Amino acid sequence: MEKFELDILGCGSATPTTLHNPSSQVLNIREKLFMIDCGEGTQLQFRRNKLRFGRLNHIFISHLHGDHCFGLIGLISTLGLLGRTGALVIHTVAGLENTLRPEIDFFCKDNPFEVKVEVFNPKVSEVIYEDRSVSVKTIPLLHRIPCAGFLFQEKQKEAHLLPDMIRFYNIPVRELAKIKQGADFVTEDGKIVPHGRLTIPAGPPRSYAYCSDTAYSEKIIPVIEGVDLLYHEATFADTDKARAKETGHSTARQAAQIAKMANVKKLMLGHFSARYPDNNILLEEASEVFPNTVLANEGLREKL
Amino acid sequence: MEKFELDILGCGSATPTTLHNPSSQVLNIREKLFMIDCGEGTQLQFRRNKLRFGRLNHIFISHLHGDHCFGLIGLISTLGLLGRTGALVIHTVAGLENTLRPEIDFFCKDNPFEVKVEVFNPKVSEVIYEDRSVSVKTIPLLHRIPCAGFLFQEKQKEAHLLPDMIRFYNIPVRELAKIKQGADFVTEDGKIVPHGRLTIPAGPPRSYAYCSDTAYSEKIIPVIEGVDLLYHEATFADTDKARAKETGHSTARQAAQIAKMANVKKLMLGHFSARYPDNNILLEEASEVFPNTVLANEGLREKL
After folding, report:
1. Are A106 and A187 in the same domain?
2. What is the 3-state secondary structure (H, E, C) of A187-239?
């Protein structure tokens, strides 16, 4: 099956710890890498996870808190040293360019590639990126500053041809593309061979939703409905529910409630506060509501 | 003995690797922490080395290449989250504030402390910081952009009083400060008790020189003459000597030549290029010229 897998590079929150890096992850969709958030140290964890810089062309930044973007300048600088030439596109909310562009101009003035910043409106859910394999849609989140999550939806793949059947009916090459896309085949004497007899269907398209940082918000449910994997921030445990509300964050239990109501297949918790030396308390509280829950962790690779 | 010890937080060069962090180190002088350079990820290694953020008031930045300063904004942001109130002083060459100040203003606008940037002239060797324990002098270096190293010189410590002798001569408390500083004691009947009989001398003042990044430069020798420890960059091995010259860096052997000519007590090599999976080649080449050489490494603590 073609790749659709998530690498966790960092799943801590604002105060860094020796347990977790600040937020960053990479989604590998058919060997194209999409980075989501880029906290300090992201480029190092990217290397540790043995990902390839040359495959990375798009970075999505959810919001402009430092733990989600301080790693950008170091990553951009390193890509320059590695001789990158193709443009790098950063999709983010308004404001980043005011601080990032002067840094690029000063520290990376010899960079042989362009950094394009494309600004989205975090208040609406809209498609901000699309190619033949995937579309990326924003998910308006409820945080202290403008913030959006991202929904990655794989496109329906073409059916796989059955070589024996193609030979049996002696189907000309020019017909094959249409058949893959769903057409039946009509023989010279007018007989219809249905599409389903010539192909096996591709697997269902996969989907991944990233929701961090956010307070508990039921408004996101229609957007993330039924995704294969939901990464939802779970900064706090039940005991710190008031603090979660105050700071625009969620508890693990709230993340699970959203996962349950949105009928997602699997939940991954992340953006852990530095106050919990053991994140299993978060896993336990979430699992009571939504059993198919896992904890994010640096180096974790989740295949969808 | 009062502390004078060096913690290595990062000793790699511009391209980060999974072996080394970019440049940063911390000198602990009598429980005051002085940071030298601050590459990306410094705050994390600071925590790993179990250093205390509250003891850090001065940061010295040698030059404005990203691998020596990209960690500043993350560190400053974290100090704010930890509720720091005292000013943090960054000593550096001109230019840093143009990119750092807008970042602080945008990302750390609620920080409860002030960041002061004090600019030095990297072309001359002059004292840029001084307190009761230590003075810090710049060391003009030879690099592609303006760059200075730093010489930390401990001040002569006061002699230690011998309690038995103080009691024996029944010396009043008001006299003790003077005696510690070198005075003799005169008894009521005019007899002189020499300073040396009342005290034991303090250890000799210690000194540390940081020289990175720099091409081979004999001009630094008079400034670093006889230091207890010299950290000298050794980006390249002999085989890459031409590349060293071209990029304003040194080979390990050149670092050792400087150490030998400056008659330093010990040499530590650092700023290792990513091209050497094993830095022992650098240690071997330097040791042929200057045997008392060690390799820097993340987590290393060197007591002077």
Report:
1. no
2. CCCCCEECHHHHEECCCCCCEEEEECCCCCCHHHHHHHCCCCEEEEECCECHH
Alpha helices in chain A, H assignment, sequence order: 42-48, 72-81, 96-107, 163-168, 173-180, 195-198, 221-224, 241-247, 252-261, 280-289
Any known ligand binding at B58? no
Query: Which run of H or E residues covers position B283?
Result: helix B280-289
| Dihedral (Cα; B164, B168, B173, B174), 10-degree rounding | -130
How far apart CA A284 and CA A294 sit, in angstroms, is 10
Contact B74 A66 (CB under 8 A): yes
Q: Does A103 touch chain B (CB under 8 A)?
A: yes
- Chain A touched by B44 (CB under 8 Å): yes
Could you report the per-residue pLDDT of B113-145, keeping only the tens digit for each? 999 999 999 999 999 999 999 999 999 999 999
From B112, B62, B61, B111, select the one nearest B90 (Cα to Cα). Answer: B61
pLDDT at position B16 is 80
What total of structural domains would you count in chain A? 2
Q: Which of B171, B200, B229 is where one domain is finished?
A: B200
- Taking only the tens place, the pLDDT of each residue in A216-261 is 999 999 999 999 999 999 999 999 999 999 999 999 999 999 999 9
